[in-house]
């Protein structure tokens, strides 16, 4: 296995396995320390020992699928995470400590994810992780060890005190936002094919959508597919089911390429939907190879401000990705970037002598996180509508037009979250 790296990086790529994990380390040359670094080093040397921390370094990592069925959904995430670490190191690190960054592959496997997490904690003494995966098996281990963990799409981020969601806490099962349904209604949709791939998070989302559709007048669920395979699947068969159900709209959550292939198969069947939402549809390059199959489709990335919106933080992210030869439009890449950005924020909050416990205590009281503008709203980690803060109030939609994904002029905010069992509004 080879690992590409530029000369400034401290990194490693780790593949978790049941018996052992393989680590390939890449040593950095580093930039010349600023005069303040000597002062920081002296202060850091007085700190009590802490896992993952030395006077000159702090160990962070990315955990997610580099291989396996879910890996396509997270393309660019680990590289964007590394980019954010590199940017901080270029400024001298965090209080004089350079970030030593490692990538752990969970191979889209629950058992491998646990093994990789154990290696990160026990062998590598990682201070904190950003977990970017649809696999969730490592969260109990991370919680037990009070490992700071950032991410966006897993239930632990609305309940585990050590887990911090970059773009708002995910809704608990049975609670969902009406934003997408209302957006499709405005496009004339009345009958929705509700499709998700077979993962824990996507299934919770799809089941919640089913419940929400029962509560909204003028729109109904015409087809439910709760187990669309990740990776290879029969898009033609799925398109026929949509056609035969009489659906005039679709909500597709999960495997991005799966949603795109379903749209292409619908086009081949002569079906034109009034509206379709594909979560993760954010890369205009996809449209260059699909003809008009996606025209009018709603796209979103995973909660961040889309590339192309004139914000300084978006330009900093996108230009950094392009300079590194990476694709800034990948849906998952901004979340990888933000995952490390939030770890950096928590370490700064923890002060000159950070520990995992102090990180968690301090970041849990932060009420003004915006990712420097890469998040469309201000995030609070104090208890709100979930124990870990409020759910996202804003979504920044894009719409497919020809070979372009055009962002809305502004985010759609004021999301109303509803309990699908009681019909009660719990936020918004």
Automatic annotation (TrEMBL):
Pfam families: Peripla_BP_6. Transmembrane segments: none annotated. This is Unannotated protein. Residues 57-398 form the Leucine-binding protein domain. InterPro entries: Leu-bd, Peripla_BP_I. The keyword Ligase does not apply. Keywords: Signal. The keyword Signal applies. Gene3D superfamilies: 3.40.50.2300. SUPFAM superfamilies: Periplasmic binding protein-like I. PANTHER family: BLR6548 PROTEIN.
